[in-house]
Design goal:
Layout (H helix, E strand, L loop, with lengths): L1 E7 L2 E7 L4 E6 L12 E2 L4 H14 L16 H10 L8 E2 H7 L6 H9 L12 E2 L12 H18 L1 H14 L15
Parallel strand pairs: 1-4, 5-6
Antiparallel strand pairs: 1-2, 2-3
Helix pairs in contact: 2-4, 3-4, 5-6
Length: 191
């Protein structure tokens, strides 16, 4: 596995992966930052450089969604939760209980929250868009200050770019999602 560290307006981030897929994208000092000992230098890895470029474009307000192939490793519930995170559009939030309902596990809110906390792709799978059912900012491996800053950034991005353009970027993210493993489709959401 290779690692590429780079700076962002909210602090250092590290992209982890190979030439084919991204294994993780984390803020430095994040709660579940993997052990990086033994990682090779990722400065020459084109995929990791692409991640760095797209993160830069995101923070500049030019990229509402990412098109990076991801390496999905996790339990069936984690995979379902991480896939569902991609359905939360820029400028919006949902509660952990709503996310649990979306993945067909309405009584497993704690397990869903744990899966959100273990999301290996900060920003790409936007776990920062999941909030408490009372609207409070809760749980973010990168810290609540960063979560608040990311939500404020995305609210500005949505206002400046307009809802139609953000939705178009969201559609590109979903269509470009490349995964080496197939995951089962999510159950239809009932209202």
């Amino acid at each position: 596995m290779r690692a590429l560290w780079f700076d962002t307006p909210l602090g250092a981030m590290v992209a982890l992966g190979s030439a084919q897929t991204l294994r993780g994208l984390h803020f430095g000092g994040a709660k579940h930052l993997p052990d990086l000992q033994g990682c090779e230098d990722g400065r020459e890895c084109l995929l990791l450089r692409r991640v760095q470029r797209q993160v830069g474009e995101y923070f500049e307000g030019h990229r509402p969604a990412f098109d990076i192939p991801l390496d999905h490793e996790g339990t069936a519930l984690q995979k379902a939760v991480w896939l569902a995170l991609a359905d939360i559009t820029v400028g919006t939030t949902i509660s952990y209980s709503e996310l649990a309902a979306r993945v067909g596990a309405p009584r497993a809110v704690r397990a869903v929250a744990q899966a959100v906390g273990r999301n290996p792709w900060t920003l790409i799978r936007p776990c920062h868009r999941v909030i408490g059912s009372n609207g409070s900012l809760t749980g973010f491996a990168g810290g609540l200050e960063r979560k608040s800053a990311l939500l404020a950034h995305e609210a500005r991005m949505a206002r400046e770019r307009g809802a139609a353009e953000v939705a178009q970027g969201f559609a590109r993210q979903k269509s470009a999602d490349i995964t080496p493993m197939r995951t089962p489709p999510l159950p239809a959401r009932s209202r």
